[in-house]
UniProtKB/TrEMBL annotation:
Topology versus the membrane: Multi-pass membrane protein
GO biological process entries: mitochondrial electron transport, NADH to ubiquinone
Name the record gives this protein: NADH dehydrogenase [ubiquinone] 1 alpha subcomplex subunit 11
Native source species: Paralvinella palmiformis
InterPro entries reported for this sequence: NDUFA11 (IPR039205)
Domain of life: Eukaryota
Keywords: Membrane, Mitochondrion, Mitochondrion inner membrane, Transmembrane, Transmembrane helix
Length: 171
């Protein structure tokens, strides 16, 4: 299958494609795009299920309260990880941990409880460091990846036959 089915073009952030400190602007732009997309999803859920604002200005304002911090946090993560990696000259999990903590601090402003927001920032830093460590060692959390569509043929009869036996022909 082609690369177009393997990853959704909106979900590609290029974070692990090059060492930290290289392609910072590209990583920042694509991370902010993904953050805005995720913030838009949460904003839509809030608008439809929780706050139910009336009027186009109220709906837009409510959506922006989710989109803006999420895009800012994602951009801050990518830019901080890139700058720290450039200054240190190393491609290490510490870069992503510091970037995620900085991005988490942006998200902490979204919470009314600041200690809880800083706790979320710390958890994000641990998760980002672990993900970078796994990526550097070549390990994967999910064996098929996050997007296992490469195992499917969308144009003919369903899943690929990659088990080594022939398809039955009596159907």
């Amino acid at each position: 299958m082609g690369e177009s089915l393997r990853y959704s073009p909106l979900a590609k952030t290029y974070i692990y494609d090059s060492p930290d400190g290289q392609d910072c602007l590209k990583k920042t732009f694509h991370s902010a795009k993904l953050g805005a997309l995720i913030g838009g999803y949460f904003g839509a859920i809030d608008i439809v299920a929780i706050s139910k604002p009336t009027g186009i200005l109220a709906v837009t304002g409510r959506a922006l309260t989710f989109v803006t911090p999420a895009a800012g946090a994602a951009a801050t993560f990518a830019m901080t990880a890139g700058i720290v990696g450039d200054i240190r000259g190393k491609d290490s999990p510490l870069n992503h941990g510091l970037g995620a903590f900085a991005g988490g601090c942006i998200l902490a402003t979204r919470f009314s409880n600041k200690p809880m927001g800083l706790g979320v920032a710390f958890v994000l830093a641990l998760v980002a460091s672990a993900m970078k460590k796994l990526n550097l060692s070549g390990e994967r959390i999910l064996p098929g990846g996050l997007f296992p569509q490469e195992q499917w043929q969308f144009y003919k009869y369903g899943p690929k036959n990659n088990r080594g036996f022939k398809e039955p022909t009596n159907y």
